Amino acid sequence: MKDIRLMKGNEAIAEGVIRAGCDGYFGYPITPQSEVLEYLMATNTEKRTGMVTLQAESEIASIHMVYGGAGAGKRVMTSSSSPGISLMQEGISFMAGTELPCLLLNVVRGGPGLGTIQPSQSDYFQAVKGGGHGDYKMIVLAPASVQEMYDFAKLGFELAFKHRIQVMVLSDGAIGQMMEKVELDEQLPRLTDEEIVKKYPWATTGKTPDRPRNIITSLDLNPVKQEIININLQKKFKHIEETEVRFERIECDDAEYLFVAYGSSARVCQKAVQLGRARGIKVGLLRPITLFPYPVEEVAKLAKQVKGMLAIEMSAGQMVEDVRLAVNGVVPVAHYGRLGGILPAPDEVIHELEKNFINK
Amino acid sequence: MAKVKGEIVVNTERCKGCELCVPICKEKTIAMSPGLNSKGYHYATSTNEDCNGCTNCAIVCPDGAISVYRVRLD
Amino acid sequence: MDHILTRDEVTVPENLVYSRTCLLTDNALSYCPGCGHGTAHRLIMETIEEMGLQADTIGVAPVGCSVLAYDFMDIDMQQAAHGRAPAVATGIKRLYPHKTVFTYQGDGDLAAIGTGETLHACNRGENIAIFFVNNGIYGMTGGQMAPTTLPGMKTATSPFGRDTASMGFPLKMTELIAQLPGTYYVTRQAVHTPAAVRKTKKAVEKAFQYQKLNKGLCFVEIVSNCNSGWKMTPLESNKWMEENMFPYFPLGDIKLPKP
């Protein structure tokens, strides 16, 4: 019998990490994602799977607790929302420099500054282009449903440890707070300490006589060595771009126009596609699921097929730049986005398509 | 106290010539060498036979450059 | 008078009574001649060796002069962002409760940028040890004022002496955290004389032994010198430390476990 429940997005990913064999969650309250920590505390993860759940004194402390756990080979996670994620950037850069696997969740809210608590997508650049210092990338997954919030827990940890990289689930206040049906799968066992020593020989589990000491550090005062470290990082990111792209095509096969949108905006565009088709407009939707690595080839391919693309984002236009890079001038690419935490309505979106491309 | 004989062995390359050990030695055994190590430091050296192996010099040495030997003379 | 032993006859392995612990690596210490960091490193590694904890200990290095501690300590270590070592150590200890975990931090790391992490790790009673080397200055970056810089003390960023009216007073972090119920053993020591070194060694031993009891955080401050930052010779700096640092940062146990 399938285990199906009605859950909030924030609760679904919390349940998801427990079932994915997570060892530790270190976080701090901030609307609109405090339910993650609340759910983990309420379900008493220590009793359920032995997983540690700890509320830290700040988002800064949280990310560095994650750093410590990840450096010791454990599956660890933190979650926050925009201002909190900004506080974590130095820690994320340190984990990039030490190639530490972890799962991060940003339930994006309207910015900048204290901003608002409503949903937004204005942290795209920060997540995809690197919000901390130095050349680095994270794998960024964009859930568009509560089911994906649940699924991306396990997927996130798999990708993180497969590539020794940070994986960020870039959600938003709507998906975090909405309730939907979620199908849960089986409980994966947490790795034992012995299994960690074998699987992750780089982890600081205690220097045994059979190996030299393990050091987790992003410091190298010798620029020649630091360049080599960076070159190897770039090779990893390139490999990820070639092997880990994920997206969903909705009614693209015969599309003459294309929406490009992720997360909540993609949900709105699905309705807009129906409205457009009802009016004889052959429009489709490309929904990137990985924002890094971005589906560049797919966008470039569709650019040869459609007459124009409209990027829909709850921001002043960030992902649209990656669409333009991929399209490379082959067709016009426009952008429409509501700001400050406002969700666009489907008819608004289809009207923008008509305005930009059809009854110009 | 039974008669003892001590000796110190200084790792002259590790010594940075900080001189912390010199006044610590009650027997005034240690002084800085006229010569330099490869890093250009005058290094600590034993200058008399009065060392009793008390290890005080070794335990204040920030670089752990001094090894101490002691034997009882019965 | 019987035969006088030659040097070679004395310096044979069975007569060895003191030598550098094998848990310090062969790397030359990066510290300035006479700096207390080297002594502090040695005492911690001697203790880990004597307690047989090498395979069970994970250290966390800070940002500051001892940022390269992992080049000298032959144990598994993580390098934390400036001020965040107590949080990194919390993450490790919570996930490996049976391991021995410690941080090694300077005064800027622990009492300036890392104040929050220090207070809260202590307040949560994390079962870790914090070794805090207090030399009243930022050594690595070239001698700037630190939270523990003394009133009137000249540094690169208080060139006319620390003016308490505008720059505040030296922060007594050790007394502060001793107030928190989460701390179990809190002491302030030094490493500039044989007697002081022996007391510090005892304190380090206690910190590691008590950690096994899971009774809370053990905090060992080591007041130390900074020859280049204070612009003195090593011997002068130890004398200056006794005359100026110790009155403000008195040595001794501040909090002992109730018997």
Description:
The complex is a heterotrimer of chains A (360), B (74) and C (259). Chain A is an alpha/beta fold. Chain A has 2 domains: 3-193, Rossmann fold (3-Layer(aba) Sandwich); 248-358, Rossmann fold (3-Layer(aba) Sandwich), CATH 3.40.50. Chain A contains 15 helices and 15 strands. Chain B has one domain (3-73): Alpha-Beta Plaits (2-Layer Sandwich), CATH 3.30.70. The longest helix of chain B is centred in the C-terminal third of the chain and has 5 residues, at 56-60. The termini of chain B are close together. Chain C is an alpha/beta fold. Chain C has a 7-stranded mixed β-sheet with strand order 3-2-4-5-9-8-10, sandwiched between helices. In chain C, strands 6-7 form a two-stranded antiparallel ribbon. In chain C, helix 2 (36-50) packs across helix 9 and helix 5 (107-113) packs across helix 6. Chain C is globular, with a radius of gyration of 19 Å. In chain C, 56% of the residues are buried. Strand 9 (215-216) of chain A pairs parallel with strand 3 (76-79) of chain C.
Rg of chain C: 19 Å
Q: Spell out the helices and strands of chain C N to C.
A: HEHEHEHEHHEEEHHEHEHHE
Order of helices and strands of chain B: EHEEHE
Q: What about the largest sheet of chain C?
A: 7 strands, mixed
Lateral strand order in the biggest sheet of chain B: 1-4
Helix/strand class of chain C: alpha/beta
Number of domains of chain C: 1
Radius of gyration of chain B: 12 Å
How many β-strand runs of chain B? 4
Number of helices of chain C: 11
Kindly report how far apart the N and C termini of chain C lie. Answer: 54 Å
The geometry of chain B reads as elongated
Return residue spans of chain C where pLDDT drops below 50 for at least 5 consecutive residues: none
Overall mean pLDDT score of chain C?
97
Mind telling me which CATH architecture of chain B this is?
A: 2-Layer Sandwich
Q: Tell me the name of the CATH homologous superfamily of chain C.
A: Thiamin diphosphate (ThDP)-binding fold, Pyr/PP domains
